[in-house]
Automatic annotation (TrEMBL):
The chain crosses the membrane at residues 45-66, 94-113, 119-140, 197-216, 228-247, 254-272. Its EC number is 3.6.1.27. The lineage of its organism: Bacteria, Bacillati, Bacillota, Bacilli, Bacillales. It holds the Pfam family BacA. It is found in: Cell membrane. It comes from the Bacteria. GO terms for molecular function: undecaprenyl-diphosphatase activity. This is Undecaprenyl-diphosphatase. InterPro entries: UppP (IPR003824). Keywords: Antibiotic resistance, Cell membrane, Cell shape, Cell wall biogenesis/degradation, Hydrolase, Membrane, Peptidoglycan synthesis, Transmembrane, Transmembrane helix. Its main location: membrane. Bacitracin is thought to be involved in the inhibition of peptidoglycan synthesis by sequestering undecaprenyl diphosphate, thereby reducing the pool of lipid carrier available. Catalyzes the dephosphorylation of undecaprenyl diphosphate (UPP). Confers resistance to bacitracin.
Length: 273
């Protein structure tokens, strides 16, 4: 009986890891879907340690996919700072804009993140915020911006940063909010996607580092070490393939289907959970 219970627990956390991994890159809210699936599986834990742990797996997958961009940005920025070569100026400015865009979510996350997460973590809230996400995605579904990496401005960075800060609310997709903000200021699909996910890196990394003591002190983490590791691996693999899929969807301009999905799930959550 104990072995069956353990297998069932592993299966539940495998599903949660897959849910996190699939929904983190695509604009349908990973935090909202984790709340929904926790409700469906009857997992009562409401702390943030699990979310932070599997989110770090998603971060590793994003780092793997964008490793060449990160290397180029770092090398060219260093070259620009040391030699003032114009060839590296655009990449240096791109990093500066990423830093600027990180500030709003950093401030809100540090001072209000826990309060917002606890106060708005109900399934009803997720149902409403999924509908809001659907509207936002619908607004930018046909936008075809022209701004490339070298054409961004400080104003663009601030707007995208403020958009991402809204995603502190469970059910508002972080990637979705960032992509919506990026496309509203006129970025093309490739630049919008790159900016959104490179922006995800410092935010996720900062959150993970700051919350390490919380994770280690969480009794649920120690008691559920094996299920957490299963979820971590599942999240990493799922994030990698989901982000690759999103890149293809962005290229084809099929974002409207995510809007349809969020409407359907949002309504079902409001009606039945």
């Amino acid at each position: 009986m104990e072995s069956i219970t353990a297998l069932w627990t592993w299966f539940k956390y495998l599903v949660l890891g897959l849910v996190q991994g699939i929904t983190e890159p695509i604009p349908i809210s990973s935090s909202g879907h984790l709340i929904i699936f926790r409700e469906l599986f009857g997992i009562e834990a409401r702390g943030l340690s699990f979310e932070i742990f599997v989110n770090f797996a998603s971060l590793l997958a994003v780092l793997l996919i964008y490793r060449k961009d990160i290397y180029r940005l770092m090398v060219n920025s260093f070259r620009f700072l040391t030699t003032r070569e114009e060839a590296g100026k655009s990449d240096f400015q791109f990093i500066v804009y990423l830093i600027i865009a990180t500030i709003p979510v950093g401030v809100i996350g540090v001072f209000f993140g826990d309060v917002i997460g606890e106060a708005l973590s109900s399934t009803k809230t997720v149902g409403v915020t999924l509908l809001i996400t659907a509207v936002a995605i619908w607004i930018i579904r046909n936008k075809r911006g022209q701004k490339h990496d070298g054409a961004l401005t400080t104003k663009d960075a601030v707007i995208v940063g403020l958009a991402q800060a809204v995603a502190v609310t469970p059910g508002i997709s972080r990637s979705g909010a960032s992509i919506v903000g990026a496309m509203l200021v006129g970025m093309n699909q490739e630049t919008a996607l790159r900016f959104a996910f490179l922006l995800y890196i410092p935010v996720s990394l900062g959150t993970g580092v700051l919350e390490i003591p919380v994770i280690l002190q969480d009794p649920g983490f120690r008691e559920l070490m094996t299920p957490y590791i299963i979820a971590f691996i599942a999240s990493f693999i799922a994030t990698y393939f989901a982000l690759k899929w999103l890149m293809n969807i962005m290229e084809k301009g099929n974002l409207k289907y995510f809007s349809y999905y969020c409407v359907i799930v949002g309504i079902l959550v409001l009606l039945f959970l």
